[in-house]
């Protein structure tokens, strides 16, 4: 046992390793609390702490009266350079992707949007509110802001397919660079209603600014990802020359 880990952390790591290596398969029932107590020679409170953490992080699903089961895999999304759309990234994992539009309206730019999009106060901005789903489960709640002058008249069809593809194919706008800021936040009541989660669930929060090759700001967005349904892959390429 790693002496730097507490008892519940050690049990959590042991169970997580068993899940990630396939010893416990998706949908499989894991040993009962009492069985785990006997296996690790610890109290029920210690086992419950480990199981609660794994449940909150989306690796286990606990069903009253039935036991604890290995949860479905989290949806993986790539943060590093990729040409794959959300639907492609989800579909390749064997899940059915869907983007659902909640709202599309034109609003005047406030001070924050003026700064984020490098436009003037009160300039027309299209506010696009969407949910992304995988196998009917909401994984991401997103609000995007695109200047009207950049892409006037975005439609429901554009928003529910690939917004970036529409910007390029319909409006001739090519996204050359995105800057993303990632933080951890917690779900409030409004976000819970969209993501169908409990209040206080840890979420990934990402602010993104998209630019063309000339540095013109095309989009600013705020996205909330369920921490128990999503993880991210970051791939970096390094110069192989000595």
Can you say what the CATH homologous superfamily of the largest domain is?
Chorismate lyase-like
Overall average pLDDT: 84
Instruction: Give the count of helical stretches.
Output: 8
Strand order of the largest sheet: 4-5-6-9-8-7
- Reading off the top of the CATH hierarchy, the class of the largest domain is best stated as Alpha Beta
What is the alpha-carbon Rg in Å? 21 Å
Spans of at least 5 consecutive residues with low confidence: none
Order of helices and strands: HHHEEEHEHEEHHEHEEE
Question: In whole angstroms, how far apart are the ends?
Answer: 40 Å
Strand content: 25-35%
Q: What structural class do helix, strand and pairing data support?
A: alpha+beta
Residues in helix, %: 25-40%
Secondary structure tally: strands = 10
Briefly note the CATH topology name of the largest domain: Chorismate lyase
For the largest beta-sheet, the strand count, sense and barrel status come to: 6 strands, antiparallel
Total domain count: 2
CATH architecture of the largest domain: 3-Layer(aba) Sandwich
Q: What does the overall shape look like?
A: elongated
